[in-house]
Amino acid sequence: MAISLEASFPIVNVSSSFRTSFSQSITVGSGTNRIIVVAVVRDRVDTSSGANTVAFNTSETLADCGAGWIHPTQWSSVQFFYRVAPSNTTANVDVTCPNAGSTYCGAAIWVLDGVHQTVPLRTSTPSNHADTGAFSGSAISDFAAGDYALSILSIDSTGHSPAVTGNNVSDFSTQNFGTGSDEWQGSHNTTDGTLGWSWSTTTSPWSWLALALVPDTYTPSVVPHIRVVSAGRRGV
Hints:
By secondary structure, the protein is mainly beta.
């Protein structure tokens, strides 16, 4: 089946106050081959580069997709977390952020159906960041037909109005942290895995992250085991 987004998602949780953790109640449906994906965005100069932690329904820990960017000098950090086969229930997504006593942190949450349960993500997950300059677009190198790409862009300043371009579809409107010192927005793409963004100035640091979900119709490549039999010549 094609990957599809469950009703009411994405859900966005953002605050105008510093916080060490937060919870967001969600309802996971009974769709086949489902997955939770959570994008955590932090607005802090985080020299510790500590990791966020995310769990659903208290004990169902989400795994870090492994390509997040915790910016060491600028206020722009993004990470993706996921869990296949989450419980069909209404429960909290709990997010804990390091050093969040002086951090603005937020999250976007998706629940999707039709995702491969043993190979849910493509092997290469691009992560980009820069101290200045506009984002000119990027592609998920191993994106394949039927994949579902999710992306997050965070910009360390206001007034940029980040927007998606090309084949992308905006999943939610621009979010501002606290006093508006940072902006972020998410999008998805189901066409070619090319993620494009635009904003109004080129002077601020930014962090961008994307991943591709694999449909449950995907068949992983299997290297056949070949047995070589050598026939000898019998002497006379």
